[in-house]
Amino acid sequence: MNRERMSASSRKPDEVAVAILKALVELGGGPVSCKEIAAKAGLDVRRVAGKIRGLVNTGYVEKVEEGKYRVTDKGRELVSA
Predict the structure, then answer these.
(1) Residue ranges of the ArnR1-like winged helix-turn-helix domain (predicted)?
(2) CA distances for 23 relative to 3, 12, 18, 40, 50, angstroms
């Protein structure tokens, strides 16, 4: 694993990312679409779509099928802390 990838995976999510994780948990954990997450979190769907990629890459969210996501145990732990 290179240094950039390691530092990216060790970063804590920002406020928007945490709002997305909370919305996922409140929606039952998934699988749900970016549109559903955006509606629950009160965010623009494009912003959710952009952030969700980073959450998948860092292990907070799992892509279960095309356009559908669910929160991981790591993501649940972050929002319940």
Answers:
(1) 11-80
(2) 31, 17, 8, 6, 16
